[in-house]
Write a structure and sequence with these properties.
This protein is α/β, with parallel strands linked by helices and about 160 residues long. It has helices at about 50-60, 85, 135-145; strands at about 5-15, 15-20, 20-30, 30-35, 40, 65-75, 90-100, 115-125, 130-135, 155-160.
């Protein structure tokens, strides 16, 4: 059997919560509708903050203020249900608390992802019934939503989860 060497990729995500609702991108793939935090892959020469600013302009058409690093997720594709498609993936995701500086709009998104079909403000109390990735993040968001740190605090390493 041929051993696949995982490709390592840094990714950043914006955790934007207003009035008990989480801003997510709505996506559609072969398994149906799913939700993601806005964000994406770091390009060479970019800092994590530069990447997050760029990705939010591309996906939600909004400028943001970046706060505290909230969660750190590691995703090793071969260990999860999407292994047939992304078994060679190894991604480190940095999830930051963010605040909007202007209203997001799918219509003003500069470069939405290929599977992105819109934006949604998902109520935190309904996340359990939604396909938000990573699923492991949902209880943390619900529990921490009332007191997400914006300037200081401690980060949470979520591990290799989906």
């Amino acid at each position: 059997m041929l051993e696949v060497t995982p490709r390592l990729r840094n990714s950043v995500k914006a955790v934007i919560i207003e009035d008990g609702r989480l801003l997510v991108t709505v996506n559609h793939g072969e398994n149906g509708r799913y939700l993601l935090l806005p964000g994406g892959g770091q390009k060479g020469g970019e800092t994590l903050h530069q990447t997050l600013h760029r990705e939010c302009l591309e996906e939600i058409g909004a400028k943001i203020k970046i706060g505290e690093l909230l969660y750190l997720r590691e995703y090793i594709g071969r260990n999860h249900e999407f292994a047939p498609d992304d078994g060679g993936a190894h991604q480190i995701e940095f999830m930051f608390a963010c605040h909007l500086l202007n209203r997001p709009s799918h219509d003003s998104a500069a470069l939405p992802d290929a599977f992105q079909i819109g934006l949604e403000w998902a109520p935190l109390d309904t996340l359990d019934g939604k396909m938000l990735y990573p699923q492991t993040l949902i209880p943390h968001l619900v529990q921490d939503a009332g007191h997400l740190p914006t300037e200081s605090g401690s980060s949470i390493y979520l591990g290799d989860v989906n």
